[in-house]
Design brief:
Helix content: 10-25%
Order of helices and strands: EEEHH
Low-confidence stretches: none
Largest sheet: 3 strands, antiparallel
Shape: elongated
Distance between the termini: 20 Å
Structural class: alpha+beta
Strand order of the largest sheet: 1-2-3
């Protein structure tokens, strides 16, 4: 398909180098899911202010693949 849409959820840190990708979703132009996965942040914790925005708790990320695996 010629078009895809990408959406991500982040855990923003300070300094910005501490920003962590938590979820990545891709759909094609037919609305079909190409990829929808959580992304492990390994030894970093979700900030409570970010959890209130995206609702992704640390516990969901424990078994998620790392970014390089996605």
């Amino acid at each position: 398909t010629p078009y895809v849409a990408l959406d991500t959820e982040w855990n923003y840190g300070y300094p910005p180098s501490k920003n962590l990708l938590c979820r990545i979703s891709i759909i094609n132009d037919l609305g079909e899911v190409v990829l929808d996965t959580l992304v492990s942040h390994r030894n970093n914790q979700i900030r409570s202010s970010q959890f209130k925005l995206h609702g992704i708790p640390d516990s969901l990320l424990l078994d998620a693949p790392a970014f390089h695996e996605v």
